[in-house]
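Researcher: Next sequence.
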Amino acid sequence: MVDALRAFPSTITIAIFGALVIFGIISFVQLGRSSSPPNTDFPVVAVYASYPGASPQDMERMVIKPIEDQMSGIDHLDELTANAQEGTAIVVVQFKMGTDLNLAAVDVQRRVDIARSTCPPTSTRPS
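Model: Next structure:
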């Protein structure tokens, strides 16, 4: 009788772990899977401008600065970065996740058109 009582706790432990394994396998098999990948569209708009022959400092002062000033008040803005090289500039406008990119692009284009009035006349139209 004493031997039967000593074996009782290990039998219960084995039964509990066995039940957990069985329930785990059943749950894994019934786990739902999505057939479509998640939405990974990042709301980013890039503005490219060129001014042939201009130094990076001139691009910063005459092209990037007016565009950045216009972008500073845009809705749902997350981050604004700019890069100037000789004769070219790129301004990247990153919006918060969930922002409608079509509306954001229209708003960016409208603000770039406003900033264009202060850019040098020989520079190309920012796009």
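Model: The first strand starts at residue 44 and ends at 50. Residues 46 and 92 are 4 Å apart (CA to CA).
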